[in-house]
Amino acid sequence: MTNDVGIIERLKNHFAEGLETVTSIDQPTVIVPRGQLLAFAEHLKSVEGYVMFNDVLVVDWFPARPRFEVVYQVYQPETRQRFRFKSFVDESESMPTMTGVWAGANWPEREAFDLFGVVFDGHPDLTRIYLPDDWEGHPLRKDYPTGGNRID
Amino acid sequence: MGLNSAQKEVERGILLTTVDKMSHWAQKSSVWPATFGLACCAIEMMSVTSSRYDLARFGSEAFRASPRQADLMIVAGRVSQKMAPVLRTIWEQMPEPKWVISMGACASSGGVFDNYAIIQGVDHVVPVDVYVPGCPPSPEALMFGILKLREKIQMGLPPKYQEVAMARGGAS
Amino acid sequence: MATEEVRPAADTEVLSDETMVINIGPQHPATHGVLRVRLTLDGERVVKAEPIIGYLHTGFEKTAETLTYQQCNTITDRLDYLSPMTNNLAYVLAVEKMLELEVPNRAQYIRVLFSELTRLASHLVWLGTHVMDLGAMSLFFYCMREREVILDLIEAAAGVRMNPSYFRVGGLAYDLPLGFHEKVRDFLKDWPRWMKTYMNLVDGNPLINQRLKGISVMDRETCYQYGVTGPNIRATGLPLDLRKDEPYCLYDQFEFNVPTRTEGDAYARFWVRVEEMYEAAKIAEQALDKITPQGEFATSDRKVALPPRDEIYGNMEALIHQFKLVTAGFPVPTGEVYQAVEGPRGEMGFYIVSDGGPKPYRWRARTPSYYNLQTMPIIAKGGLVADVITAIGSIDIMLGDVDK
């Protein structure tokens, strides 16, 4: 894999402000403000050709604020390049859903809701995916005990 | 005469114990497991029925997809909180007498997954007769477990759920 | 074939008002584990297929945060339990990338050898169970017989049949046992003959052809949208293979083809996997030639790999290293990394965030079956009920992988 070094420059030129570059040892990475996220993703898909969805995941930075880092990974199948972008969100706020851009974001976003409690606005079916519907709490949060709240 | 002596034998209880023994022998020789493959252990459970290990030698190769046709449940793998009610329902659907083998570390004790998602031992959900250790147990280990269960059946010991019921002082 | 016309066309049907909802699973023999599918049917025709997952949710990601980097290795085996070695590989490569650790070439070749052997073992289980779903029983027994031979090889090297945790950060757990080369050579010599046996049963078999051709079609766009990888996307004509595109473990030194098909249906996926089995044996053979009988099997960096046993008894420093590694583990520099390998089911990747300590701060497994299974509502829609089973088998899901 040869990383496209020019992509960050091009994106920075297109999105005049707000993008923040992160030095990462493996992939080009940027932090995108939450408001610009959808426009950014659309641009990445239609102009840069990152049509292939890879993953959505959440990192909990408790007790820092904003608490959750949502990481998106996408893939460019023509040139075989990877790209990563992130955004931050707090407990009381919500994220825009990516299901309109990459349909595959459906389950990973449900998973993020289930295990972290991150809310995605406009998601077609934001329900628990792994745990039973009557479960309390979001287990992958750092303040949730590993053993869970056991009765026996 | 003949009838009289038979009557005497019945009174002495010999005929009854023989029937019991024979039914135990028949039971132990065709223990039909329900397919309850959950995780890694299920693959070893598949191995035990296939070419090299061939559980058919012990009359237990007929894995039944319907719990109503099975009398042994091999819980093969980790039982999650979401799966536990399903497991209990399937166990209740099995006709009596029924036995349970807890296969592998996860089913027996939660194994390496000491976390919110996994039931820490399937004996919280259903009464277990035989525990087979290993992660996953080798097919030989599972066969040993099944042979132990056969011994138990032959000896006429009650299945675990009956033991539990008796200990509680009620009828099963 | 004349009988092929019997199957009604999928998209020309006008649906009636009455639909029926039936539930398959979670305890069902044909779902390869504890998958539950809620089907909405109009007669025999599937209107909607919704996979419901989570019945094997194990909490891997939470558990990993409580384990040190070496200990995490053991739980990666249990994600996709049919191909534990490739899970191990993705994980150790991710950690090695963060540590910027050099691993001896011999260890890399052994990793390649075992990755390909596990790929064979995994595809054998797929072949046996998939064909069994279609109604042919006997192939399953042949496949399981040969799988035992591969498991014997794994047992000889790692000590256990399944879940071996043989790859460690910095190299391997142990060196290869004596006489291992001969054992693998024997296996590879027999392999073409065995493949021929399987192919005699399936190649050109009209029953299998009819149950697979044109069934559960997945187009390229769907693959892109849902992040479908592995044989499933290669069956749509795109030779996407991380072994070629992002060579890890010196895969660029090996000669092999990436089999593709263009139809994107269950039949194409079937043959892509079968051809992959030939390629995997080819790679294993080349890897075996490159592995010298003696040599290094792990890095000599004592901050990461355990010192050899005899050194511990005579050397104070080695004892300290052993003690530190076992009790505290090694620290990993702050940062994040994503590393993926080509598993039998697709892109198996790990995203690891480190806060500089000996335990991962966030440990994310990007498991291929999870993303592949998401396409199930699309590929099963409009088909017949029996084809739902074909769809599940042909995307080759592994529930440990889906539910993590």
TrEMBL record, chain B:
Q: Keyword check for Metal-binding, yes or no.
A: yes
Protein name, entry field? NADH-quinone oxidoreductase subunit B
Role: NDH-1 shuttles electrons from NADH, via FMN and iron-sulfur (Fe-S) centers, to quinones in the respiratory chain. The immediate electron acceptor for the enzyme in this species is believed to be a menaquinone. Couples the redox reaction to proton translocation (for every two electrons transferred, four hydrogen ions are translocated across the cytoplasmic membrane), and thus conserves the redox energy in a proton gradient.
Q: Which family does it belong to?
A: Belongs to the complex I 20 kDa subunit family.
According to the record's subunit comment, the protein's assembly and interactions are:
NDH-1 is composed of 14 different subunits. Subunits NuoB, C, D, E, F, and G constitute the peripheral sector of the complex.
GO molecular function annotations of the record: 4 iron, 4 sulfur cluster binding; iron ion binding; NADH dehydrogenase (quinone) (non-electrogenic) activity; NADH dehydrogenase (ubiquinone) activity; quinone binding
Catalytic reaction(s) noted: a quinone + NADH + 5 H(+)(in) = a quinol + NAD(+) + 4 H(+)(out)
Top enzyme class? translocase
GO cellular component annotations of the record: plasma membrane; respiratory chain complex I
Q: What is its EC number?
A: 7.1.1.-
Which UniProt keywords are present, listed alphabetically?
Answer: 4Fe-4S, Cell membrane, Iron, Iron-sulfur, Membrane, Metal-binding, NAD, Quinone, Translocase, Transport
> What broad class describes the main subcellular location of this protein?
membrane
At the top level, the lineage of the source is: Bacteria
Q: What Gene Ontology terms for biological process does this UniProt record contain?
A: aerobic respiration; electron transport coupled proton transport
Record gene name: nuoB
**Domain (NADH:ubiquinone oxidoreductase-like 20kDa subunit) ranges:** 40-149
Localisation: Cell membrane
UniProtKB/TrEMBL annotation, chain C:
Topology with respect to the bilayer: Peripheral membrane protein
Q: What EC number(s) are associated with this protein in UniProt?
A: 7.1.1.-
Q: Which reaction does it catalyse?
A: a quinone + NADH + 5 H(+)(in) = a quinol + NAD(+) + 4 H(+)(out)
Annotated GO MF terms: NAD binding; NADH dehydrogenase (quinone) (non-electrogenic) activity; quinone binding
| Every NADH-quinone oxidoreductase subunit D domain range | 133-404
Q: Which coarse location class describes where this protein primarily resides? A: membrane
Q: How does it assemble?
A: NDH-1 is composed of 14 different subunits. Subunits NuoB, C, D, E, F, and G constitute the peripheral sector of the complex.
The protein's name in its UniProt record? NADH-quinone oxidoreductase subunit D
Species of origin reads Sulfobacillus acidophilus
Gene name as annotated: nuoD
